[in-house]
What does this fold into?
Amino acid sequence: MNLLAIETATPACGVGVRTSGGVELTRVVDENRRHTEVLTLAMAELLGECGLRPRDIGRVVVDRGPGLFTGLRVGIATASAFAQALGCGLVGVTSLELLAHGAHGAGVRGTLVAGVDGRRGEVFVQTFALAEALVATSRPAVAVARDVVIQWATNGDPVTFTGDGVERYAQDFGAVPNGHVFVQTVPPVHEALALGLRRAVETSITPLYLREADAVANFTTRERPR
Amino acid sequence: MVLGIETSCDETAAAVVDADFHVISSIVESSIDQHRAFGGVVPELAGRAHVTTIGPVVNRALVEAGLDPHDPEIDGIAVTSGPGLIGSLLVGLSAAKAYALAWGLPFVGVNHLEGHLFAPLLEQPGLEWPLLTLLVSGGHSMIVLQSGPGQHEVLGETIDDAAGEAYDKVARWLGLGYPGGPEIDLLAQQGTAGSLKLPVSMTGPDLDFSFSGLKTAVVRATQRHGDVALADVAASFQRAVCEQLLRKLRSAMEAHDVKGVALAGGVAANSALRAGVEQLARDFAVVAHLPTLEMCTDNAAMIAAAGLYRLGAGAASSLGLSADPNWQLSEV
Ligand SMILES: [Zn+2]
It folds into this structure.
């Protein structure tokens, strides 16, 4: 089966294709939030380079977040429409597990905290235990970056941090005495291809926002119009 | 046949229109219920709704048109690429590009306002040009001279609030629901226009509008005369808005020899405005094109129609097209 993977949870835009013959091409085509402009063009390019037509794709894998809201919507709208158009399978993976698998694949072991930039001083985080296998030990959540730093510094256990949320607060995370930073800003697309092959297909994918819409949050503290 | 997709505001819409501008299917879902409590469309909520709704809506439009949703026999895809809420536009645009790539079809980014201008053509395919169109919605108020499909000149537009926006703001001030247009229209029918003295604005010879002062005048007048019945306020405001719109439209009719006069946009559902345009058409002995309710509000059939014309003119877009939240009609 030929797979197509789409990753748009951070300012970068990643696309990957893996053919049934085992040929794999992945590419980060932009790092400046230009998802809308570059994504479909990159898909067309990559398919062409692999000698595939769109109809040859049997499954679409998409990063459903957490991450940039608009980026996620562009990626998921594209992936869902593409899969729906062809009547092929759709699989969702998370940006945090892609980061964890990326670190795991690079040989990182022990406790790993993956963090995606959530803006406004916050990060989307999840903790994993990396040994021979990779196991998630917490659920994806949103937290104040400083709180995460303090929590692990106080805890004292050895830990590795990774993700663009960690890079954004590199000084703070880098200062955790028992901590180590594995530099990795973009959730790796090749891990999405690998996971997509193993997972069961879903009927629909929705973004993993982990945060209420702005207006909802603001509105609760604002006076209701009379 | 063209598949149209529209996601510029709170409506998620898809439609199939054939080469003769017949609407084969048209599906519209709205997230308006989620926005009511806020008195306006909340962009993030609209974006979230679009991303879950777009797939099922497109699927329904194709199935209801009798097409194979995995291999539809259509000639292209048209999508609104501006103006509108950027986070909403991106969802429709992304989906449209993916469908185009998957099916190997051309696609074109359509200006939402040009879409509204194509609405009369869908309901009266044999209509005669030129046409003067009053396009009034929550986001826009303008008079457009259309010499033919896709050929338009903006003669005048609002210098501040859109007419629909003024309705929403006044409705909010009066404690009525959102959107304000239908609420005020309904209430106005039980009131007496002129009970509240409101200024006659924009009396110059140009064809531009202004509604911001009118809204302020309503606020001041109701503060001074707290005893005026709500229905009378609504009726007075409605008359003042329609009076300004129709006076300018009349000036445009006097200056341009046209075959018809059309209403477009959400405010085209307003009963007083429809009656006024009908009267205007009688006075000038031209055809009045009053859209049905489904054609007033945002829909994808009008986008498909504009796309049909644009694709026919060889104006397909690149897959690299970006959305333009401020795309002016005069730039089309
Ligand atoms: Zn509109």
Summary: The mean pLDDT of chain A is 94. The pocket of zinc ion is lined by residues B 112, 116, 137, 265, 298 (CB under 6 Å).
